[in-house]
Amino acid sequence: MAEDKAEHRGRLIGRKDNGQELVLTIILKTIRLWPDRKDMMKALDSQVAVVTGAGRGAGEAISIRLAAMGAHVILVARSAAQLDRVRGQIVQAGGLASAFPCDLTKASAAEELGAVVAEQHKRCDILVNDAGVGLEGKLLHEIRPEEWDLIFDTNLRGPYLMIRALAPLMIAARSGHIINISSLAGRNPLPKGAAYAASKWGLNGLTYSVAEELRQFNIRVSVIAPGSINTDFSDHSGRGAASGKDPKKKLQPDDIASVVATLVVQPPQSFISEVLIRPTQKP
């Protein structure tokens, strides 16, 4: 954590019984637990960040924030049109971004992405696995096997494939940060959302284990577990718009981006391994 350079000195003056003046100098230092946004601007100059699910919602907000911090952001999602829109916003604001449409449920697509990043950028400093799918409320026995497969292929297999494709670049550089966007549903029971919850419990376990595997290479692996997010896709409760929750009380995509921005500028000797983030008021 960076300390504020300004020091505030005060002087307390009293007297002992023998009449000698007692001078106490107090130095008050302000410690910033969360870096100031101004301090983080351009903190990622020359770095390369890959963000999945970058076409909308939290992934879009994360991409825009990392680009504003100076990173070249590689935008990954299925929809080329959505990625082009996000890339346009970043470029218009003076940032750097590339769009890479692909289906992350396919191993060949992730391998191709890894090869492109290695060839064109020769590095990957940050990987944010945000792509995910939910499922409107169904009891577990009502879920079709293909629905189960889609949830796990996207929410759990996708991050594995991305780590498999990009971790070698981080290992070679002995540096990097992987951030998986999980859910509070991965820490609590979720009736009529068992498949989604199970995929997020699995993502949490993957994150904790990979963090131990990669720390020897100076690579940090973190997980963010948000509650209800106000997006048109999924609120990370596994129920999306079907939850009927008040969107104004939900977390906003930029709230998640702020947490990601904080994680990636931690000093090298430490890292935040897990962040749980909830709405202030229950939706």
Task: Write the topology of this structure.
Layout: E1 3-15, E2 21-31, H1 37-40, E3 48-52, H2 57-68, E4 72-77, H3 80-92, E5 96-101, H4 107-120, E6 126-129, H5 145-173, E7 176-181, H6 194-214, E8 219-226, H7 253-263, E9 274-277
Parallel strand pairs: 3-4, 3-6, 4-5, 6-7, 7-8, 8-9
Antiparallel strand pairs: 1-2
Helix pairs in contact: 2-7, 4-5, 5-6
Task: Output the keywords.
single chain, 283 residues, alpha/beta, Rossmann fold, 7-stranded parallel sheet, two-stranded antiparallel ribbon, 7 helices, 37% helix, globular
Give the averaged pLDDT, no decimals: 85
Beta fraction: 15-25%
**Quick one: how many beta strands?**
9
CATH architecture assignment? 3-Layer(aba) Sandwich
The radius of gyration is 22 Å
Oligomer: single chain
CATH class: Alpha Beta
CATH superfamily: NAD(P)-binding Rossmann-like Domain
Structural class: alpha/beta
Note poorly predicted spans: 1-34, 233-242
Give the helix level as a range of percent. 25-40%
Classify the fold: give the CATH topology: Rossmann fold
User: Terminal Cα separation, in Å?
Assistant: 32 Å
Number of helices: 7
**Biggest sheet: strands side by side, in what order?**
5-4-3-6-7-8-9
For the record, the count of structural domains works out to: 1
Biggest beta sheet attributes? 7 strands, parallel
- The topology string of helices and strands comes to EEHEHEHEHEHEHEHE
Choose one word for the global shape.
globular
